[in-house]
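Try this one yourself first.
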């Protein structure tokens, strides 16, 4: 990379942090290891060189290189890496949300009727919040996961409805709790005609967007009341490090044997070349869970940050 390319790369990185992640020039200076005056000049340089319009139009070389390496190593059809070096957690998650919305838009713009499979979680909600309204009433948004906890409450991060609102399309909810009370209870929920109709539609999704969860005390499934602290402890004892739509896995991506499996009602992801399953995940400590999902071929698309990408390639 030439000296000029490096200067443009640094200017684009500063512009991304300023315009997309919403960081101050002091925060940018600290993250890049430069003075505030230099950070200010970098942002101005990005404007002068035409790198900034409504969004950052300069593709940061390092992030593109990382994305290319991830695609080759894990056989990904879709991969986008956003800047994250030296940024705080909130900035990283916002950048992933913006990039995730861009990836979603590439699919949703299609005039051809589409089935969009949607999981749940904070990262997905943040990305859909960033989506512009794209009127595609011919599209259908289908839930892959029941949003009802054991106490009857619903998670605030049930996001397929938000996707349907953005597209003005139809919304299909999976009518079941994430974990039934027992095997017989699961059989009752899953044998219902509406459940079978929605799960069949979900299995035909043209594109699917999901999150990747960690397994630890206070993890999202625990915090939202879907599994207990005892469940978490037992899963960790068995080597679980990640979950995708309620499926628990070890570092190699193998499904963990658990009593919860017989009670799970969600639709499992089935990635194919013509049916991408794209995860939006990143931030501190998330690379172990993401690597498990990649190793197990649970996903074939990823939007993450550069620190996480470096860890996945390390």
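Now uncover the answer:
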């Amino acid at each position: 990379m030439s000296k000029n390319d490096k200067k443009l790369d640094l200017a684009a990185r500063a512009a991304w942090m300023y315009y997309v992640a919403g960081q101050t020039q002091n925060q940018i200076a600290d993250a890049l290891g430069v003075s505030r005056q230099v950070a200010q000049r970098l942002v101005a340089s990005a404007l002068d060189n035409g790198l900034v319009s409504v969004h950052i139009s300069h593709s940061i070389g390092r992030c593109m290189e990382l994305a290319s390496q991830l695609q080759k190593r894990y056989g990904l059809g879709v991969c986008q890496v956003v800047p994250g070096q030296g940024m705080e957690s909130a900035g990283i998650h916002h950048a992933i949300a913006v990039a995730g919305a861009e990836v979603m838009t590439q699919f949703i713009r299609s005039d051809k009727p589409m089935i969009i499979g949607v999981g749940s979680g904070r990262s997905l909600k943040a990305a859909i919040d960033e989506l512009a309204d794209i009127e595609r009433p011919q599209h259908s948004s289908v839930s892959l996961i029941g949003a009802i906890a054991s106490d009857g409450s619903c998670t605030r991060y049930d996001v397929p409805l938000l996707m349907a609102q953005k597209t003005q399309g139809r919304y299909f909810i999976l009518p079941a709790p994430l974990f039934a009370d027992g095997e017989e209870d699961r059989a009752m929920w899953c044998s219902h005609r509406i459940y079978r109709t929605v799960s069949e539609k979900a299995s035909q999704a043209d594109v699917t967007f999901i999150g990747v969860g960690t397994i630890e005390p206070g993890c999202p499934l625990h915090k939202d009341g879907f599994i207990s602290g005892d469940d978490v402890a037992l899963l960790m004892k068995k080597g679980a490090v990640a979950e995708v739509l309620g499926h628990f896995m070890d570092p190699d991506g193998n499904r963990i044997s658990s009593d919860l499996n017989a009670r799970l009602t969600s639709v499992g992801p089935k990635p194919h070349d013509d049916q991408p399953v794209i995860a939006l995940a990143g931030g501190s400590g998330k690379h172990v869970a993401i690597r498990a999902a990649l190793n197990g071929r649970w996903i074939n698309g990823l939007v993450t940050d550069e620190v996480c990408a470096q860890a996945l390639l390390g």
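Discussion: The first helix runs from residue 3 to 20. The mean pLDDT is 90.
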